[in-house]
Give the backbone structure.
Amino acid sequence: MNPLSLTSKLPQVGTTIFTVMSSLAREHQAINLSQGFPDIPCDDDLTRRVNFYMQKGLNQYAPMQGAMPLREQISSLVNELYGANYDPTDEITVTSGATEALFCAITALIHEGDEVLIIEPAYDAYIPIIELSGGVPVSISLDFPDYKIDWEHVKKLINGRTRAIMLNSPHNPTGSVLSADDLQQLQKIIHSNNIFIISDEVWEHTVYDGELHQSVARYPELASRSLVISSFGKALNATGWKVGYCLAPAALTKEFRKVHQFVTFSTATPLQHGIADYLQYHRERVTGLPAFYQQKRDRFLELMQGSRFQPIKSHGTYFQLMDYSAISDEGDVEFAKRLTRDHGVASIPVSVFYRFNTDNKVLRFCFAKEEETLAKAAEILKGI
Ligand code: PMP
Ligand code: GLN
């Protein structure tokens, strides 16, 4: 028999940092502030509703586009928050998490050799998915430590091969957010170009200090060329359910669904119906999240006072960056692993979100945790 030969399609890719750090945390029984998930339980009323639909027998395939009651609730939520009108029939698709939606959006849009602008540091799924489609990622670097976009620079990166720009606000891992002015500048830049927008807004319900989430859905001209991606994982304390969605004008949705139907086809039926009810009867628990998580952020910062870790302000997401340069000059991956092994607190090193290993000696900590968890972690970190 001939020996099998395997050529990797992703030769540079290893195991995602979220798996690496969560496994290390488990192995050392460390407090896990690395991978972003809450240790706050999801609402009883939500699990009851999902249970209800399971028991009622809604256990077969959901429609490929998503269960209609959920699509209707998403349409109404987006209208309430951003004044945007998305038709549940042909402009909203439910997906198995934002990750699936990212995969479908990029696969549907990107052809061999197309350039895709990404904001760097970049959430780790973006580049591999772009490369699987034969696309070429082009980085827009955020300046350390403010993590703002220089739009003049973006203008210079655009050329005839630029097919799309990926936005991510609030931004994971930095916690920076786009302002209305940022979106207006983007609008000016792409007005006369044939460029699509893939806007990853999974952190939309975690924007702090009285700022409003600047969804591209608020801006009709941007929305007309955008696929807006979100997820219920963060909003419902249910990251393990993997229910997300994509909003896009009908022509874009049509292409998006061509891919989606062959990736997962559909998403767990009772989850969709349970979430739809919850959005109908308890919507204020989602729209009230900014206040809840701002209080968590402030509490974590308060608990960390007196530490040698220097916070870099988080404007959104449930992550807080900490500069550890006053403690060590080790590389951030090594330092994060040592912190987990020797001190029992796991975090995410930010350098892994850069292509060319920019290491500003910064770690990302998840503050979506109960008071007791945050207090224990802060006590350890303050002793370092
Ligand atoms: N995009 C970003 C920026 C994220 O932070 C995450 C995970 N938190 C995702 C996408 C993936 O979301 P999901 O778990 O719904 O697939
Ligand atoms: N988005 C989560 C984070 O940033 C992790 C998602 C995952 O584990 N794939 O921590």
User: Anything to note?
Assistant: The two ends are 58 Å apart (CA to CA). Residues 17-42+287-382 form a domain with the Aspartate Aminotransferase, domain 1 fold (CATH 3.90.1150.10).
